[in-house]
Amino acid sequence: MKHQEIIKHIVNWLNQYSTNSKTEGFVIGISGGIDSALTSTLCALTGKKVICLNMPIRQHQTEYDRGNEHIEWLKKNYPNVSSAEVNLTSIFEEMENTYDKNIQDFLTMANTRARLRMTTLYAYAGHHKLLVAGTGNKVEDFGIGFYTKYGDGGVDVSPIADLMKSQVYALAASVGVTSSILNARPTDGLFADGRTDEDQIGATYDELEWAMLYIENKESYELNERQKVAMHIYQSRNRANKHKMDPIPVCLIPKDFLI
Fold first, then answer.
1. How far apart are CA 165 and CA 161, in angstroms?
2. Which terminal residue of the chain has fewer beta carbons within 10 Å of its beta carbon, N or C?
3. Domain, as residue range, for 126
4. Is residue 131 pLDDT above 80, yes or no?
5. What does the alpha-carbon distance between residue 174 and residue 179 come to, in Å, rounded to a whole number?
6. Is residue 173 part of a domain?
C-alpha cells in the first residue's frame, strides 16, 4: 500500500470538496478510536479550519481520556485545529426521563446517543460553515453496516470509507497518531461499560475484512470452523443492515397516475 500517495489523495479530495461546496473546513466527533483519529488528522492536513468535538455521554473514562489526548496532539501540531467539549449527558438523561421506559433497551438508547452527537455536529457545522466529516471505514460502512442510521452515519463526507480497517491502522501510524489509540481495542463509545466492537459483533475486524474480501474476490477454498462462524456473522449483519447501506427506497408513481 502506498501510504503517502493515499494520504495525499484523501487530503486533496477533502480540500477540493470543501472548496467546491464553499465551506470553510470540517467538524468531526472524536471518540478516542482509530477511525476518528485518522480522519481528523487527514482533515487537519488540508490546512482548512477543523473543529474537533468531544461529546461525552456517561463516557467510559479511558475512551474520554484517549479522545482528549488526540485532540491536544492535533492542536499542538496543526494551528488550524480547535476543539470544544459538549457534554450531552444531561440531555440524554432528560430523554431517558421522557421516553416510555418500555422502549429503552440497550441498542435503542445507544443509537439515541449517536443521534444526539450527530445533531451537535451539525449545529457546529451550520454555524461555522463546515462539513461534517464521517469516520466510517469500508468494513463498517459497506460490509456489516456497523453504524447508527442518522447517527454516526449522518455525515457530509466519508474520507476513509474505501479503506479496510487494517489500512486505517497503517495510515494512522504513518500520520503519527498516538500509540494509546493505535494499541486500543476498537469501540464505538456508545455504551457506558466500554464494551468493544468485537464484544458486540462476535468477530474481529481482521475476520470481517477477510470475509468481505473472500466474497468480493469470489474465493472458493474450504473454510475452517472459525472462518465459517466469521462468514456467518458477516453475512447475517450484511443482510440485516442493507437498509442502512442502500439508498432510501422511493415509491415511484406511474406517470399515467399523475395525469
1. 10
2. C
3. 3-192
4. yes
5. 12
6. yes
Predicted confidence (pLDDT) per residue in 20-75, tens digit: 999 999 999 999 999 999 999 999 999 999 999 999 999 888 889 999 999 999 99
Distance between CA atoms of residues 212 and 143, nearest Å = 7
Helices (H) and strands (E) in the chain, counts: 12, 4
Q: From the centroid of its chain, how far is CA 197?
A: 12
pTM of the model: 0.93
Domain-located, residue 125: yes
Letter for the amino acid at 3?
H
Report how many domains make up the chain. Answer: 1
Average pLDDT over residues 184-197: 80
Cα torsion 215, 220, 225, 226 to 10°: value is -30
**For residue 174, is it within any domain?**
yes
The length of the chain, given as a count of residues: 259
Cβ neighbour number for residue 13 with a 10 Å cutoff: 14
Place of cell 467510559: 60
191: pLDDT strictly greater than 80: no
Residue type, 238: N
The answer to whether residue 2 scores a pLDDT higher than 80 is yes
For residue 192, pLDDT over 80 is answered with no
Does residue 224 surpass a pLDDT of 90? yes
In a domain, residue 252? The reply is no
CATH value at residue 63: 3.40.50.620
**What would the grid cell of residue 156 be?**
457530509
